[in-house]
Amino acid sequence: MAQEIDRIGALFKNKSVLISGASGFLGKILIEKLLRSTEVKTLYLLVRHKKNKCPKDRMQEIFNHVLFAKLREQRPSSLEKCQVISGDMLETDLGISEADRQVLQNEVDYIFHSAATTRFDNTLQYAVKMNTLGTKYMLDLAKQCKKLKIFVHISTAFAFPKEEVLYEKTYEPPADPQKILDIFYSGQYKIDDDLEKQFLEDCPNTYTFSKALSEGLINQKMDKLPVIIVRPAVVIPTFKEPFAGYFNSLQSPTGIFIGAGKGVIRSVHIDSKSNVNVVPADCAIHVILIAVWDYLTLKQQRVFNICIPQEDLKISWEEVIEYGKEVCTRVPFTQLLWYPDGIMTKSKSWHILHVVLFQLIPAVFVDLLLFLLGYKPVLINVNRRLLKGQEMFDYYANRSWNVDMKYFLNMRKRLNKTEKETYQVEAKKIDISAFLTESILYARRHIFKEADDTLPAARRKLKIFFILDRISKITFFALIFYYIVKVVF
Description:
By secondary structure, the chain is of the alpha/beta class.
């Protein structure tokens, strides 16, 4: 029986693609997938200078990463299809040279706009400039592309937090995007904290506000350009491709598991009963590519929500945390601060108290000891990064999010067998324990450089920390009981 044709991959044969945010988490996985699974002609990668490294050097470092090992083995010459374009979302007209702009205008068939700042603590002016003004510049470029078939705007499932249910449709932004851009960048207004608060109103942070404004700009162009919006939920490590467990940053939910696994994080502020709204990074890219095929085939749907459907997997954070505890004790890290344990609470006050007593104060003492011994203090900086990741996690995990997926569920039914295998988007048979295990193993091998043959020693060390942890807890509560009795009697 003849193998069915991959209709999605066929769309990209001998076509040119522009990707903004090429050095980001989703951007890198999109590059790898297009090069490995399609016969794309050219990938134009929009990359900025950073930390005294030019765009080409930055991308070469990325291509040398283990993420591209499978690609280098299967299609060693495919990376030659990548052409790095120097550009920056923060610069006028993206800071693209006239020569590069001419090439893009004449060659680009597809645009994937994934560049964004996802930090919650940016000033409103910076977030709007990066996420909203950058989107405007990308749309301006798209209008000039003579062969453009589709513009894919990668938004977020959390851009409209007031909505009880996020449907697969457009929404009115919290303010007029053009008005906000005029106010912030005309130079006629003084930007201060009061003005920022006035615009944010009920928006929880600058990230959601700026992403909602970006969608507003996209909405205005839907009758003039072939644009679609894709809205991923919280993006977590890869499920299968190019290998399981890859992630990009410790400032993420995965970073929290790792911090807990090393005994650094002692408390997580979370509504343990709330449902998990996440999507593996490779599955998110697969849905995006399927959405491109769907729109170009039917010219019907313009907005696609991306999340693991509850029809496939309904799981609470409490269950995920329990899986995580089991994995972190079965696959422990070699370098531990303490036994991986702690609390999970909905109480903000109890969480803060726990963080101060059992996380920050010990970190100060350990760093002081390291300083006295002539070593560089590290734990305070580590805690700062992890707490920043927890801040983002806190926002997602302590609210009830309902993401409508009806169109997606019907869309994936139209995939043939070959497409279902090439673009994995079902999670009915996902093994949570195995998934978390691969994520921890990736962190051990590639972030902390801990070889697999150190696992037996790590498990022995873990047993010692377990005993010390229990002794310290018994001692701590015994002292509390002693002083209570002393005060009362």
